[in-house]
Amino acid sequence: KSIELSTYGIIFLGTPHQNIRLASTGLYFLRWGKYLSSTNGRVVQELEDPQKLSELSSRYTPISRQFRTVFFYETRPVNLSGVVQAILVNKESAIIPGLPDAAAIGLNKDHVEMVKFGSDDDDDYNTIRLSLQD
Questions:
Q1: What is the C-alpha to C-alpha distance for residues 37 and 86, in angstroms, rounded to an integer?
Q2: Which runs of consecutive H residues, i.e. helices, occur in the chain?
Q3: What is the pTM of this model?
Q4: Is the dihedral of CA 5, 63, 88, 50 positive or negative?
Q5: For residues 79 and 33, what is the distance between their CA atoms, to the nearest angstrom?
Q6: pLDDT score recorded for residue 5
Q7: Residue pair 106/91 in contact by the 8 Å Cβ criterion
Q8: How many helices (H) and strands (E) does the chain have?
Q9: Digit-coded pLDDT (tens) for 60-93
């Protein structure tokens, strides 16, 4: 209960909620890449399961009216294993349809860089910061 009382808003940064766009090529490289990087294989498997994504999203929907919700998604493709470039979580995948008053905002970053900012002058950092102040 104390977390609920202390929370004003919730932001999702590149979080897939439905039909992740990479289903074939991208997830193949993520699966393959887990041996070359720190990709969590269990998480990748869950991303492939539309029912699991739907279940997780449906758990947030009932409480979403209590918070300001902002979905951020990448607008630049990420380089996967040096072979393929792809946008992992586009706007369609990033949102939970039907949430009242939720915002969806694209960041000028790829999936890996979404949470990396060189300074507090970074445009995307300020976009996120200002979304929390609205």
A1: 17
A2: 2-6, 25-33, 41-47, 50-60, 91-94, 123-133
A3: 0.80
A4: positive
A5: 11
A6: 83
A7: yes
A8: 6, 5
A9: 888 888 888 999 999 999 887 677 788 888 898 8
Phi, psi angles (nearest 5°) of residue 47: -65, -25
* Element housing 107 (H / E): strand 103-107
- Give tens-digit pLDDT for 29-68: 555 554 444 555 566 666 667 787 788 888 888 888 888 8
DSSP 36: T
Q: Nearest to residue 30, comparing CAs of 68, 69, 75, 84?
A: 84
C-alpha span between 46 and 43 (Å, rounded): 5
Give the DSSP H or E segment for 80.
Answer: strand 78-80
Q: Is residue 83 classed as helix, strand or coil in its secondary structure?
A: coil
**CA dist 3 to 63, 131, 133, Å?**
13, 20, 19
Other Cβ atoms less than 10 A from the Cβ of 24: the count is 8
Q: Indicate the Cα dihedral angle 106, 50, 28, 35, nearest 10°.
A: 90
